[in-house]
Amino acid sequence: MKLKLNHPTKIANGEITITGSKSESNRLLVLQALYPQIKIQNLSNSDDSQVTQKGLKSSDKIIDINHAGTAMRFLTAYFATQANREVVLTGSERMQERPIKLLVEALRGLGANITYEKMEGFPPLVIKGKEIIENQVSLPANISSQYISAMMLIAPSLKKGLVIDLIGDTTSFPYIQMTQSIMDELGFETAFDGNQISIRPCSKIDTVTWTVESDWSSASYFYSVVALAQKSEITLNSYFEESRQGDAALAQLYEKFGVSTSFTDQQIKLSKKPGFSLPNYVSIDLKNTPDLAQTIAVTCLGLNIDCKLTGLHTLKIKETDRLTALKVEMEKLGSRVKITENSLELINLGVIKKEVVIDTYNDHRMAMAFAPLSLKTSITINNAEVVSKSYPSFWNDLNRLDFD
To answer: Of the listed 291, 359, 363, 397, which one is catalytic?
Structure first.
């Protein structure tokens, strides 16, 4: 589906309720599969969460998670612990190009029986579940936090619990903190001391109902709308000032672009800061919040702000190589972009081209990150339906804004 966008009035106001956090939902789904005493409300309606839920409930031998990277990591760890269960965990063509060797090696180190069906280090995986006895494992700390969270989520169900030693500097630390915070609140015994995570075994927890907070990553696109609009006030429902989600850092990051965040009763109100003077250049380290990189880069392009974004090495192994994709698409619009393995540098040339067609590379965040740019120029989004991966109602919610 091609979707043409153009909002020349540059005014956007409205109130929206975004689906529950995909990150929080997926963690809770794995814990619920291991501990049925957990009840979940406001579960994310994203493709990723639906795929994760379906995979956990399936009795089939072949589990196909399509493009869902989180599901691949979390289900690999989950099925490795399911004694007398054998599955083939597979996914889309792109998923079969995304490395998973470090997680497989860590699980094998605990005694798991996992082999590769095709290419060494990549899905599909043949997993023969068994009881895990070993309780000590080491992982590089600068890998995807989902590898570490996957190990943490299965840890209390293991006979001896688990001790995870992290080697080096940690990437996406808030996502690890989110996992620990959820587990602590549910009653599991965890500790994070220095570079070591310890989780004690647990056979049963008290019955609990958990309400998932709305997704902060999805909120980023409306922060971008407010930043790019001449006048805007948007209210987003079901958000907490004390959030477990690392991407809640949006509230501070977007102050650089003149966006103010006001917290009320489970709501945030986004508005333009009166009289705010935009900077000519920003430098932001996103190692803790790499999923915000695309949105922030496009915001900078729309505001004619040069930027350097660092801490982005995990973007190379996402739904697409996000750094390369950003370079290609932003240069179509008339800017210059330099990328390394870890960074992106945007150099604006003062003009944003019109009638540009944005390719999304089967990446939901590419589609949503470029959408707010329609306040500055006319663009067309290819494969617009890809947003269903994390935010199925995105286009409907965007249309609910008053652009008069």
So the answer is: 291
